[in-house]
Structures are given as C-alpha cells and as structure tokens.
Amino acid sequence: MAVKSFQGERAKKTAHKPTQLLVKDIMCQNLIVFHPDQSIHEVMQNFIKYRISGGPVINDTGKLIGVISEADCMKEISESRYFNMPILDKSVRNFMTSPVDTIDASKSIFEAASLFSKTSRRRYPVMERGRLVGQISRKDVVLAALNLKSSTWRR
C-alpha cells in the first residue's frame, strides 16, 4: 500500500497586506527645543549635555520658527574668532535656519528616505495638523529600514 503524504491539511493562504511604516511610528517625540532668545553658548552646552546635533526653535506660543544645528553654531564660532569677540553674546535668533523644511507625520519612511536623499538635511521637524509633534533623523530611517520585515518593502 502506497502512502500519499504524511503532511496534514495545509493552512489556507490569506492575502497579507503589509502595513506601511510611517514617520510618526519612528520619530523622536521627546525633543530638546530651543527658544529664539537663548544664547548660542547655552545651545552648544545643551548639544553636548544631551548628545544631540540640533533641534527645533519654538516661540512662546509653541510655534516652530526655526532649526538650530551644530553647523549654525560653527558660523558663530568662526565669526567670533575673526572679530576676536566672545561667543556668549549672540542669540539663537541670529543663527537659526528659517524658514524650516518639515515633513508630515503621515508620510511613509520611504518618502522620508527620498526626502533625505535629495537634501543635505540631517533631521526634519515632524508636523501634524500644523503642530510640531516630533523630529525624524536620517539615523531613525536607517534603523527602521533595518528592522523592517521583507514583506513590508512591497507597495
């Protein structure tokens, strides 16, 4: 007597629609924010203290008005050296990048990767309904891509 198969009944295949990973799923929500009237020296101290390389600048009402980065601080350092002036007396307002390029929280990480690849930006403030809700960096996108399952790569 021949044996046809030792396998049991196979599970029925169901169509698996991968969920798309969005910017809001991987963004940093606990932000170190800066005020336009803060001194550039204080900002540099915070960069070292919190091990960050930049952050959003918000006004008194919480509205995003700029971004300050290590590159912006380099301008102040080089100016101070050129004019032989102390670094301490300048405010963030004078060196922040404004207007700010942002990304919407509902964009996919693939759209974020595309945006990063087209610019030299290292981070983008994340907006949702006109409000600052987080920040995404190149590193966040790379880490998310490493953690993706292969089925998520399909569209």
Structure description:
The structure is a single chain. The chain is of the alpha+beta class. It has one domain: CBS-domain. The chain has five helices and five strands; from the N terminus they run ααββαβαββα. A hairpin with a 5-residue loop joins strand 1 and strand 2 (64-69). Helix 4 (109-118) crosses helix 5. The longest helix is centred in the middle third of the chain and has 14 residues, at 70-83. The termini are far apart. The model has no long low-confidence stretch (mean pLDDT 84).
CATH topology: CBS-domain
| CATH C-level class | Alpha Beta
Gyration radius from CA atoms, angstroms? 23 Å
Domains, number: 1
CATH superfamily: CBS-domain
* Range of helix content: 25-40%
Largest sheet report: 3 strands, mixed
> H/E order of the elements?
HHEEHEHEEH
- Average pLDDT value? 84
Number of helices: 5
Judging by the overall fold, what is the CATH architecture?
Roll
Which labels suit this protein?
single chain; 155 residues; alpha+beta; CBS-domain; 3-stranded mixed sheet; two-stranded antiparallel sheet; 5 helices; 5 strands; elongated
Summarize the structure.
This protein is of the alpha+beta class. The protein is 32% helix and 17% strand. It has one domain (23-149): CBS-domain.
Describe the secondary structure blueprint for this structure.
Blueprint: H1 23-26, H2 40-50, E1 54-58, E2 64-69, H3 70-83, E3 103-104, H4 109-118, E4 123-128, E5 131-137, H5 138-147
Parallel strand pairs: 3-4
Antiparallel strand pairs: 1-2, 4-5
